Fold these 3 entries.
Entry 1:
Amino acid sequence: MRSLASIVLGFESLVLALVTPVMISVADVRPAIAVTVCVGLAVLALVATGLLRNRVGYVLGWVVQVGAVGLGFVVPVMFVLGLAFASFWVAAIVLGRRIEEAKRAHTG
């Protein structure tokens, strides 16, 4: 589960960082705010990736998902991208648990 979740958060951090110039140029958000929000969420995604050994990493991952979807109120395309990554996040958790259960059943 952890490896799938880390892949989702890693790619999401790249997308969140790349939203910064879009917020500045298209949505006319002040650069300081755009950088703080977008790069902040990208860094939070990377921190969550590093903390996936603990429950707190998954909680932070959910915070990142909510933040990514919330960016859609400023940049509407982020509703689509945020929901896509949230779906990937849910799939990573569900499939990861199934894989871990299958491994336990096979070895146990």
Entry 2:
Amino acid sequence: MNRSTLSLLAGTAALAAVAGFASVSEPAAAAKESEQAAAVLPVERSSLLCPAPSTSDIADTSFTSFTPVTKGTGNEGRAVLASATAESADGKGAKGGKTKAGKPVLTPKDPGTPATGDVSGSDAPALIGTAEGKFAPGWTVQSTTEVAAGTGRGLLGVNCTPSDTSFWFPGASTDADRTDYVHLTNPDDSAAVVDIELFGKDGAIDSTVGENLTVPPHSSEPILLSTLTDEKQTNLTVHVNVRSGRVGAAVQALDAKIGGDWLAAATDPAPGLVLPGIPKDATAVRLIAFAPGDADADLTVKLASPTGLITPAGNGELHVKAGMTAAADLGDITRGEAGSLVLTQTGGSVPVVAALRVVRGKGASQETAFIPAVGPVGTRATSADNNAKGSTLSITAPRAGAQVKVTASAGSGGGSAVSKTFTIKGGTTQDVAAPTPSGGKGSYALTVETLSGGPVHAARTLAATEDGVPGFTIQTLPDDRGTVSVPNARQDLSVLQK
């Protein structure tokens, strides 16, 4: 799934063709130097979509925007977060994007410094954002909401995402205690047409209501899953398939008893998956997996602990039938240590999607979060909204060891950036002692960069206590795709001279 929308000027191709003609007799050394210099460039434009965070009147939401400093971007550019028209639960349109005083919720700051904006109650909007020039490479926006009471109470967080045409959400539910919404946000000038498909333990769930859903231009709409089917399913996989146009999508999963959180889209179907950052004090972990093809998948389940890969007792394998959602309750799998789940296949190579539902606390103090399978950090990834007391950064190297650099940005209220380097052994997960800004105040960003070794996967847990109830939310850190590889456009056009 794309992390950024990449824009290359049309004139670049024409210039490349001219350069190619001029370089017919270019010395080999100069040509090689030219190729190396033009191999990787910062992206010129990014787009992000944020769903409306809550309909609760007792919700407090903060948006945080951050762009890491990227070499070669120049000094020009801008970033804009505009409101989308959000449909409320009763079907009446409500204009979002501004506070009651009429001021913008958030104005992004220059790269290297986070910007925050707060909204109380149910006025928090859905946002459609674009960033250009120096603001575009690695642009990240986080939405964090505290809900004091009621269904879905606790801490809810989600990374704003680019638009796309296909999204997978294993871990949704239409159980009696759950109220799950699929939020669809359309950034374009024309309507988008979307199908929402549901897959339970016995396969596809018939529903014509989820077909040909229209999302108007520049709007965001929540679709209540229980209106698409009468079946009560504890574990569902939701597939959002866009027939026309493009949208951003996220699932808001609200539980009447154990809180709620956002379920972000899982990485695209793949034979092997990594689900990083299970909190060390998790009291219940559930794995939900789905095989979208026509073949069954046999998954080997491993926990990447601080000391290496181990097989969870009684849960070392999971059979996933084609087209059906499978689930396994893993209990308190981490047992007081950092951990990540690593899924491989014992035979064959069947693409699957997967996510974890994680519960912390006991009794009336339970709270829920979700960890979707995610791709590697790659060159760089960022978590935008952090604080020294509540943030935990978890990094796993599922195969070979790796060296990573973690940078804490300046705070939204000042200070300067601080970096630390960590070595992660192969097959392990580490809750690293992430740096904090020097003299900084307010929220700050954590940026993870891979320096050497094998691929690493990362997640950030943000915790806060609301009225004595410990809330938490988990966001994975996929590659921010802040740069793009530009192929060498040199051509031999000497044939044109004949």
Entry 3:
Amino acid sequence: MNRTTLSLIAGTTALAAVTGFAALSAPDAPGTDTAAKAAAQLPVERTSLLCPAPSTSDLAETSYTSFTPVTKGTGSGGKAELREADEESADAPADGADKGKDKDKDDGKSGEDKPAKPVLTSEEPGKPVTGDSSGGDAPALVGTADGRFAPGWTVQETTEVAAGTGRGLQGVNCTAPDTDFWFPGASTETDRTDYVHLTNPDDSAAVVDLELYGKDGALKSAVGEGITVPPHSSEPVLLSTLTGERQTNLTVHVNVRSGRVGAAVQALDDKLGGDWLAASTDPSGSLVLPGIPEDATSVRLVAFTPGDADADLKVRLASPSGPITPAGHETVHVKAGMTSAVDLGDVTRGEAGSLVLTPTDRSVPVVAALRVVRGKGDKQETAFIPATRPVGTRATSADNSGKGSTLSLTAPGAAATVKVTASAGSEGGTPVSKTYTIKAGTTQDIEPPAPGGLKGTYALTVETVSGGPVYGARTLTASEGGVPAFTVQTLPDDRGTVAVPEADEDLSVLQR
């Protein structure tokens, strides 16, 4: 998901780029050498990110952090901005001043003709910029970055809710628009209030189908079909309004018929707090779910296979000392089209860990996520860890402070070496880099390096130096009235570069 799309400038159709543009070479003339030329990795030129409306609680305090890592070969131009998604409030000042006052003053234009004032604008690559909002009226945000701000652009939304349903720490990485999302781990049980947030960044309406799958298969829901998301707007859809069935564990499939949207599930619990459930990586035969906190008191695996064949998976925990098979949970059987859930208890036993799922025999595509609980009694808090892509070339985590951030890295196959860079602070500080080696089959929790003279918040960028694939996650923690509040965000490759084949001839000539 969140796929990189190439702009075909030599063809008849121009595709809107999600994370970059590239030029394809013209066909070879008859009789010429048709051997493909090596593609160069060039920085993407444009990126879109969408942030869901953070909370409806009057007690919510939300912060946004925007960051672009420094990337070679990007030039000096460009910008990165976040704006309100709701077109009805597109003219509103970011400070919440009177929306209707003096719209037509001086320039004679209607308010609808004026561009929306940015909520957040990045200043320079390598330095985070932050913003905040209070209460339950903060809107969804739509962001675009181009030029030197596009490659690896990351925006983190973090919300603290002091009390009530979903109290605790909620965090989500703002995501690129797409057409297909899987969310194993949602619920319609009595204590849960789960919303699917759909945000449309484009000028035309998007049409979306929401499909729900429980323990016995698909749930009938006519109202989940053909949901229209107007242009430049966001729609939160309460899952319990789509079905009368109470299901403890659900898989939600967001299928976009036309247009594209950003999607995330906000899972709020009356007793266990709440957090954002990000989409699982694309269905795959093998999955990695990194970053289970060492003090997790309860871990639940929720898995789903969208195909026609059942899946049988080996369950392994990559611990600091190597792979461990959880007693009594050596394998999990996932029936086709049905959501399976396995309670793993305190599987980490006080150590850092990541869950690794591999096929026992034939490979069947699966999606999966973990529901993780910290604390005991009435002092419990929940977060979610979806299966994710590897760090790859580079991945970034924004909104880190001097305390409360843990970086979890796992190498499920071969050993690997990574470089972790702490950016300058949003209000001052000097970047710092450090190299780590992750042994094969292990997970290592590290206290990330902090910038020298840190002021404000900073970003962490992880780059693979050598070895096998590395998977990562960042955990933020805070204390909320004795509750061990936390949120976990995975670190997939930022896809900040795109492969561009070398042109066989000057395409600018063909466009005259």
